[in-house]
Amino acid sequence: APGGQLVYSTCSLDPVQNEAVVAAALQLHNSKSGGQSVNLESMEPRLPVGLRASLRPGLHSWLVPHPGFSADKPQLLTCWRQVSADVRSAKGPQLRKEMFSDFADSAIAQSLCHCRRAVPTASLDSGGFFFASLRKSVALGAAPSLGKSCLAPRSNPFIRCAVRSVNGLHPTRGCILKFYGLCPEEGDASERG
Predict the structure, then answer these.
(1) Are the CB atoms for 23 and 108 separated by under 8 Å?
(2) 186, 168 Cβ separation under 8 angstroms
(3) 119 Cβ neighbours under 8 A, 6+ residues apart
(4) What confidence tens digit (pLDDT) does each residue in 8-44 have?
(5) pTM of the predicted model, to two decimals?
(6) Is 113 labeled as catalytic in the residue annotation?
(7) What is the pLDDT of residues 181-193, one digit of tens each?
(8) Residue 93: pLDDT above 70?
(9) DSSP characters for the chain?
(10) Residue tagged active-site, from 11, 79, 115, 150
(11) How far apart are CA 53 and CA 107, in angstroms?
């Protein structure tokens, strides 16, 4: 609804999961919105002073790992044009043009500075995380909608689910490796530790 706010947050520092998602959402929505735009807004005034000092602005450019990235072949790509036709049509993990910083126009790329990243430090007792606040514009002369709120289901943070390994690894690491096609089999995972 016009005037509505969405806060996008991850517990990742990967720009493909963070800034690339925000930039693609802004670019794709604003190109099809019919006059109503979504913009990033600064959350700085609403953040506690102590937290502000620990946060870094969002990135406006980043590198994307080639699907064949490895320690022996650490190939990083800067733009979609560098992705060859055979990589675009290959089976397995796929690259998308939305993953690259050159997908969104320059105004959107520059506005990514309103996103915030927290890197693990001694002063910030936390792992890394990312957040961005997006707000839909209100048409001139219209009041923002005060419709229904949409809240996530409640959960108890003190109750942990049973931890299941994925491919013989810690669940998070196993899922990440499996997602990127790096450890598809149990034997592969045990060889990689």
Answers:
(1) yes
(2) yes
(3) 13, 56, 128
(4) 999 999 999 999 999 999 998 887 766 668 899 988 8
(5) 0.68
(6) no
(7) 555 455 544 444 4
(8) yes
(9) -TT-EEEEEES---TTTTHHHHHHHHHHHHHHSTT--EEEE--GGGS-HHHHTTEEEPPS---EE-TT--SSS--EESSGGGS-HHHHH-SSS---GGGSTTSS-HHHHHHGGGSEEE---SSS-S--EEEEEEEEPPPTTPPPP------PPP--TTPPPPP--BTTB-HHHHHHHHHTTS--SHHHHHHH-
(10) 11
(11) 26
Residue type, 54: S
pLDDT of 105-127, one tens digit each? Answer: 989 999 999 999 988 776 777 78
151 or 62, higher pLDDT: 62
The residue with tokens 């000092």 is 53
